[in-house]
Write a structure and sequence with these properties.
The chain has nine helices and two strands; from the N terminus they run H-H-H-H-E-H-E-H-H-H-H. It is mostly helical. It has a single domain, classed as Ferritin (Up-down Bundle). Strands 1-2 form a two-stranded parallel sheet. Strand 1, helix 5 and strand 2 form a beta-alpha-beta unit. The termini are far apart. The relative contact order is 0.19.
């Protein structure tokens, strides 16, 4: 057998190190093509480990919110995710019944025109899941459910192709997972609500891993989030030696979706007029 015919067999640890090294060479392409405004917002959207927005244990908010406050905060985020995926896959958003009475408008939404069959199927399934999350939270809240606020899906530019869709979807899903983790402490007084949140968190994590896998298979990278994609053999895995996913307080999540790291901010970014409910300020 010629040397050129030999196939190098790597150990699992060598393969993990190879992947890590490969990713380290390609971490400057996050949201390429979105323009200066999009890149600035994208850098704010998902911050890597070591940022000032990462909390080991989220501090308790002043005036501790009640379970319904937290579920409405989650509902605001689900309105955003559902709208993003529905516009990307169908060109239209939530039904009026799912948005609630007195709902705001969605601007900047765009349908993706070059989905591959595989990504199209994945995107459609996630869109349906996020729509169902909206309906589940509205059902759990009953008459206390807030209506959908004004949403600007164009906060990062026009997301109308598969590459940008996958990169932004990854950022949304990773942020969603950290948001549910950070809000869990405010749901401990209500086991049913905490269970609902845990179940939704798990689905968001499924989405995140699916999107991440497809980005890897397509050779796409996102510098703002790749720093958290390292093998478990390193101490930086998921930002903690204990291999824990990061958590964000509601205020930290608002810093991301408002695209503003200052305190006391009540609107901006994806929510031009802010969220509806009681948790609205960074």
């Amino acid at each position: 057998m010629k040397m050129t015919d030999a196939v190098e067999v790597l150990t699992p640890e060598q393969e993990l190190n190879r992947i890590q090294y490969s990713r380290a060479l390609n971490r400057r392409r996050f949201l390429t093509g979105l323009g200066t405004a999009g890149l600035a917002a994208g850098a704010t959207m998902v911050l890597g480990c070591g940022s000032s927005m990462k909390s080991t244990v989220p501090p308790v908010m002043a005036g501790t919110p009640q379970p319904n406050d937290v579920l409405n905060f989650a509902l605001n985020l689900e309105y955003l995710e559902a709208s993003f995926y529905l516009y990307a896959t169908t060109g239209t958003g939530l039904s009026s019944a799912d948005m609630g009475s007195g709902a705001g408008a969605v601007t900047g939404g765009a349908q993706v025109t070059n989905f591959s069959p595989t990504i199209a199927a994945i995107a459609a399934q996630i869109a349906d899941d996020e729509k169902t999350h909206v309906e589940l939270l509205r059902s759990a809240l009953g008459s206390a459910a807030v209506a959908m606020p004004n949403i600007n899906l164009g906060a990062l530019g026009t997301i109308n192709n598969q590459t940008l869709f996958l990169q932004v979807a990854r950022a949304f899903e990773d942020t969603g997972v950290s948001a549910y983790i950070g809000a869990a402490q405010y749901l401990v007084s209500s086991v049913p609500d905490l269970t609902y949140a845990a179940q939704i968190l798990a689905v968001e994590a499924y989405h995140a891993s699916n999107i991440r896998q497809n980005l890897i298979q397509l050779g796409l990278t996102s510098s703002a989030t790749d720093s958290m994609d390292v093998p478990p053999t390193t101490s930086a895995y998921f930002c903690e030696k204990g291999a824990l996913a990061i958590e964000r307080t509601p205020q930290e999540v608002l810093n991301i979706v408002y695209a503003n790291t200052s305190t006391g901010v009540t609107s901006g970014g994806f929510y031009p007029n802010g969220l509806n409910g009681t948790i609205v300020s960074t």
